[in-house]
Design a protein that fits this description.
- This protein has 240 residues and is α+β, with helices and mostly antiparallel strands.
- It contains nine helices and eight strands.
- The longest helix has 17 residues.
- The N and C termini lie far apart (51 Å).
- 22% of the residues are buried.
């Protein structure tokens, strides 16, 4: 896959003899990147600009992406053949990393039976429009976060930066991501304020993919890094 396969490219119009930009699949509100770490580093660089700046640059011109814009991606284990390690700067742009795993037997049975008469995905209908998503994003920003919660969150972030087992701790962007995720969890729970458990429950999925363990160079597993972050969270005193 080449960068142009993601961003789009300029094509020559045979009638006008002018180049016209043809947008790629990145020009969508929700982009699903399957097996993202199979893309080459050049393609990852193009995707990074989209995730970071919500724009793409092609042939010296900048094209804004639609809003809201979000990327959902799946990733293969690094030991799989044909995979590339994702740059730390790109991993830092993902809000959450959630293990998928295999479904429970009952759920997998439902998958089998639901495919008996066709493809269920083709029957899906929208439950939100873009305007509603933007209103939800704005509502998240209105959720109150007490200074004691902010201090607790920063204690966790600081612990990753001073931990002897980590080469790289959580960035400022990572701390803000945990802040926003905690606000979102509170809103989903029907509260207009964040509680310590919102931070604690989301710390591992928000922060673990943003740190680099010293054991990473020797093949440390994702579970080990997550356990390390979880330990740092447990050691941080939560506000009463």
């Amino acid at each position: 896959m080449l960068p142009a396969d993601v961003t789009g490219s300029s094509l020559l119009n045979g009638r006008t003899q002018e180049f016209t930009f043809s947008p790629g699949p990145i020009f969508a509100n929700i982009v699903l990147a399957d097996e993202i770490n199979r893309a080459t580093p050049r393609t990852q660089s193009a995707l990074l600009e989209a995730m970071s700046e919500q724009q793409v640059s092609v042939d010296g011109r900048t094209h804004a992406l639609p809003r809201p814009f979000m990327v959902i991606a799946t990733q293969n284990p690094v030991e799989f053949e044909g995979t590339y390690p994702l740059p730390e700067s790109q991993l830092d742009r993902f809000l959450l990393r959630i293990p998928v795993g295999y479904p429970q037997r009952e759920i997998e049975m439902d998958v089998l039976t639901s495919h008996r008469d066709g493809e269920p995905v083709e029957q899906l209908e929208a439950v939100l429009d873009c305007e509603q998503v933007e209103r939800l994003q704005e509502a998240v920003r209105q959720v109150r976060v007490d200074d004691a919660i902010n201090a607790y969150l920063l204690d966790i972030v600081s612990a990753t930066r001073t931990c002897d087992d980590l080469h790289v701790g959580v960035s400022v962007r990572g701390g803000l991501a945990l802040y926003r995720a905690a606000q979102s969890a509170a809103l989903v729970a029907g509260r207009d304020y964040v509680v310590p458990d919102d931070v604690k429950q989301l710390a591992v999925p928000v922060l673990a993919h943003r740190v680099i363990s010293k054991g990473y160079l020797h093949g440390a597993e994702r579970e080990a890094i997550e356990a390390l972050v979880e330990r740092l969270v447990d050691e941080a005193p939560a506000p009463a």
